[in-house]
Design a protein that fits this description.
Helicase, Ruva Protein, domain 3, 352 residues, alpha/beta, Rossmann fold, five-stranded parallel beta sheet
Length: 352
């Protein structure tokens, strides 16, 4: 069963979505929430104060959040996957739900169910654990494919359909799913179609000695999550995500991105290349990275920096690559190094 009661935050996420949609650009606070780079810097500082020594993972999580995607974390237990999600939800002042996926978990535990109300004589919808702004699907590969698929509509369309009735989810909406790559017995690995719906996949990894020592010092006295205060709100994030979609990507930049993704389909090292959805996700993520850097246009560096997290989980290695012990990350890195730019994208306003 989900780790939280489905009715606990039943109205919180939809109410935030309503407020965010009603706010609009005219109610934004200039110099604070309109500045995406400043917003990202505040979120980065807040989350990194809890998740120490994992700046690149935090950066990717923020890119995915601002780009409107979802994140897949593959790593061993105890490296801070759930802590990352908790810190992110507290930093944006939004409710978080954690769902522990098990073989007996039902789709209705996630999406919700219609319950008969004897007083009114009608069926009443009881939202499931998916109704939150940040949802952690812990060990998603331990649930059945039927239960895994219950998350797909919510991830792709930010809504769930119960008995023919559509229920919208709140905004922003971020799913962080985790997998343990070492213990695969009795699990249901995510198929390619489901992995493709995650914008990025990253590994937390073990902290270095300095970060782990600092963690022992800090957490020996108090949990840093308890002192973490929100640095923004859901409405500001919705406005920022809307602005991210307007970041300029030149025709030459888009052509380079398409060439890079197409190269995965022709590479002899891969038997399955990246899908067109990968191209869309890579462009959206590159726009978010550019906005976080304070730019109004995308550079090739934004694409190459995100190619690994965005593409590696979408491709399948050929038999020869597996025998040679070549990883998907190695193949993507080689393609990034060899696929040329057709022409240098011209930046707007005469910027370099």
């Amino acid at each position: 069963m989900p780790s939280s009661t489905p009715s606990a935050d039943r109205t919180a996420a939809p109410q935030r979505a309503t407020d965010a949609g009603a706010a609009g650009p005219t109610t934004a606070r200039p110099g604070r929430d309109d500045d995406i780079a400043g917003l990202a810097a505040r979120l980065r500082t807040a989350v990194c104060s809890v998740v120490q020594g994992k700046d690149s993972v935090v950066e990717t999580a923020l890119v995915v959040l601002l780009a409107g995607g979802h994140l897949l974390l593959e790593d061993v237990p105890g490296v801070g996957k759930t802590t990352l999600a908790k810190a992110l939800s507290r930093a944006i002042g939004a409710p978080m739900r954690r769902i522990q996926f098990t073989p007996d978990l039902l789709p209705s535990d996630i999406t919700g169910v219609n319950v008969y109300d004897r007083d009114s004589g009608e069926f009443v919808f009881r939202p499931g654990a998916i109704f939150a702004n940040v949802v952690v699907c812990d060990e998603i590969n331990r649930a059945s494919p039927k239960t895994q698929s219950a998350v797909l509509e919510a991830m792709e369309e930010s809504q769930v359909t119960i008995d023919g009735t559509t229920h919208p989810l709140g905004a922003p909406f971020l799913v962080i799913a985790t997998q343990n790559p070492l213990e695969m017995e009795g699990t249901y690995p995510l198929p390619e179609a489901q992995r493709d719906r995650f914008m990025a996949r990253v590994s937390m990894g073990y902290p270095d000695a300095a970060a782990e020592t600092a963690m022992l010092e800090d957490r020996g006295r108090v949990d840093p999550l308890e002192d973490l205060e929100p640095v923004t709100d859901a409405a500001a994030l919705v406005r920022a995500a809307h602005q991210v979609r307007g970041v300029h990507a030149s025709p030459a930049l888009r052509a380079y991105l398409v060439d890079l993704v197409a190269a995965t389909r022709m590479s002899p090292a891969l038997r399955l290349g990246a899908s067109p959805r990968a191209s869309l996700h890579l462009l959206r993520a590159a726009r978010a990275r550019a906005a976080m850097a304070g730019r109004d246009h995308v550079l090739p560096d934004d694409v190459t920096a995100l190619a690994g997290p965005i593409l590696t989980h979408r491709v399948l290695l050929s038999g020869e690559s597996r025998l040679a012990r070549v990883g998907a990350a190695d193949v993507i890195a080689d393609l990034v190094a060899t696929v040329p730019l057709r022409a240098h994208p011209r930046t707007p306003h005469g910027q370099a």
